[in-house]
Design brief:
The structure is a single chain. By secondary structure, the protein is an alpha/beta fold. The protein is built from nine helices and 15 strands. Strands 3-2-1-4-8-7 form a six-stranded mixed beta sheet, sandwiched between helices. It is globular and about 70 Å long.
């Protein structure tokens, strides 16, 4: 790297999940100079491997002599670098002060953002609290429900800057398990998805969730008897699972202002299913709200 193109951040924002590590070179005013990523997620590292993984990712940037790093996500879990204890709902979306990691070199000051817990019904989040804090910093005085689609999707009720309650759904993981580990694997394939089939399955399952299991086996039978295409089968499985989730989360989204954080195909499906129920969805970029949340944490140290 030539000196003319050197990246000189004031501090580093880090989103450290189960599978991936992503760092942003930040300025004091919250602008992003550059970003870098690796596959050194939490699940692949031992406690003494987190610091080397971080240093390796930052090696091409000219960091300050004492560099502040603010990190969110599974890096602060029990299996991560250091457990950052959960805060209990109801609570402000942004923690007052992140948790410092001890025993780093003098040139590196690392802070971890705590997750949030709900005692009844039991639930936890790590990383999503930072997205919510960032969302609220970009949308002051916003009240309503935030949906965060993913492997474990979340519905979060926020009011007056507080996370009031939330529920987690294993919808994405169930899609993966069912499509790869059951008899339906023989009838699913590829990545294509029939939108009409998705709409029909989401609507039917939301209104009649008790038919969910029987309708799943019909996907296999329709393949054997009628040669139903994998694109239709995938769409019906996805629609049925998201419809089940919407049925269970109805108390969150019905009659509420709803925001979906995400710009991928999965977020598109959630918006499509909600639109079917006459819910207008506000969409926000995951990376943008995550960086905004990390900036609010940086301001708190």
């Amino acid at each position: 790297m030539t000196l003319a193109h050197a990246i000189r951040p004031d501090w580093i924002a880090v989103d450290w999940g189960t599978s991936n590590l992503r760092a942003f070179a930040m300025t004091e005013d919250g602008s992003t100079l550059a970003e870098a990523s690796s596959d050194k997620g939490m699940s692949s590292l031992k406690p003494d491997e987190f610091e080397p993984a971080l240093r390796a990712l930052l090696q091409d940037w000219e960091t300050p002599s004492t560099c502040t790093v603010i990190a969110c996500g599974m890096v602060g879990s029990r299996q991560g670098w250091l457990e950052a204890p959960y805060r209990a709902t109801p609570c402000m979306a942004q923690t007052d002060r992140p948790i410092p990691v001890q025993n780093c070199g003098d040139d590196l000051k690392v802070w971890l953002i705590p997750g949030i817990k709900q005692n009844d019904p039991a639930d936890v989040m790590r990383g999503e609290e930072t997205q919510i804090a960032g969302f609220l910093s970009l949308n002051p005085e916003w009240d309503g429900v935030i949906c965060l689609p993913g492997t474990h999707s979340k519905w979060v009720h926020v009011s007056a800057g507080e996370i009031v309650s939330f529920r987690t759904f294993m919808t994405g993981e169930l899609f993966d398990v069912i499509s790869k580990g059951t008899v339906l694997r023989h009838s699913l394939g590829g990545t294509d998805m029939d939108q009409k089939a998705f709409d029909e399955a989401a609507s039917e399952t939301l209104s009649r969730p008790e038919k969910f299991s029987a309708n799943l086996f019909s996907l296999r039978a329709a393949d054997l008897l009628k040669g139903q295409s994998p694109a239709i089968a995938r769409a019906k499985l996805s629609g049925a699972l998201i419809g089940m989730e919407l049925a269970a989360a109805k108390s969150y989204w019905l009659g509420q202002r709803v925001a979906v954080i995400g710009t991928n195909d999965l977020s598109d499906l959630y918006e499509r299913a909600l639109n079917q129920q006459s819910v207008t969805v506000e969409r926000y970029d995951t990376a943008a709200v995550t960086r905004a949340g990390l900036c609010t944490a940086y301001a708190a140290i």
